[in-house]
Amino acid sequence: MADPAAAELTSAVAQGVERLLRQMGLSTLREFTLANGRRADIAGLSRKGEVVLVEIKVSVADFRADGKWPDYLDFCDRFFFAVPEQFPRDILPTDQGLIIADQFGGAELRAAPEARISAARRKAVTLRFARKAAERLWQQQLISG
Description:
Blueprint: H1 4-23, E1 27-33, E2 39-45, E3 51-56, H2 60-65, E4 78-83, E5 97-102, E6 105-110, H3 119-144
Parallel strand pairs: 3-4, 4-5
Antiparallel strand pairs: 1-2, 2-3, 5-6
């Protein structure tokens, strides 16, 4: 992302989304790559194994230039768009979940419809999530010492 202001806003929205998802009982990872090569901004995993994916949009141009979000739907039980408060929500698809967020937290304005993924896909996504979390923890340990 070339625009520093957009990158800062995206980070703030991500922080708020993660706080909301954690309050909902999910563990989260940012920048989670799926088996199809697409990268979700945030992935959440519940204790029951429910997979939630979140796509952050901070500008109309960002939303209109991105046609890849439907590729995420086969890899999650619920899908949300997350946007800052000032984002024009009327341009977003109404058949997906909606979160408004800033660095302090988020609010679920529209529930995401549930579309259960198959057991095999759930296992694959869960294993990918676990391996990525372990890899990131290992990298942090290397950095800190």
